[in-house]
Fold:
Amino acid sequence: MRRILITGSNRGIGLALVRHYVQTDALILATCRRPGAADELQQLAAQHADRVKVLQLDVIDAQSIVGCVDEVRQHTDGLDMLVNNAGILPGGVDDRDANISHLGDLEADAMLQVFRVNSISPVLVTQAFVPLLRNGTDARVINVSSDAGSITMRSNGCDYSYPASKAALNMMTRCLAGDLRADGIRVISVHPGFIKTDMGGVNATLTLDQAIPSLVQTIDGITLGDTGQFFNWDGKKVDW
Structure:
């Protein structure tokens, strides 16, 4: 049975991944900040109580991370996959908050919060779970990034915080891949597609039903030779 931990599992891509993997032979550790408010996730867990465990995790809270590791250890002694999916874009794609995106309105604290969640927390969460990943089988870390973080693809203006936070996450992926290669742990960044979620908005080009099957095929298929790479949801490589 595969042992999979997914952050930000209460909605969007995270919840869709839980829905997919619950149809397979997997133990899913589904984390979110407020489990009591995660109605759809809790319903799913109630239907599959033996294989879906809902755990509290605030990815920018050090004590919460430690507590989550301890709780995971009550269910398993190893992890086969960690999906760092939790991320923020205040205001969403369609109406980004001005204090993180508009020159003239930028505010340091608001920008730093985006970096804390999107860039720093995946590294700290991974760091905390490395001992369990070392006990996993074909272990892998999947950092959910965005092609918005591709410097090559950025030809003109920028929304500052969100793209920069994803570019930073991609560098963190490279760093983690280098440190964990000797343990046989694969680490990649993945662009999940421009998906119609709360973050992606109504103008996104893909539905979850369209994107998730290919995304899962991509992340399940990576080899140690792929570690440190940046993949599109359909398996193609994305330019840094």
Observations:
- The chain has one domain: 2-232.
- The radius of gyration is 17 Å.
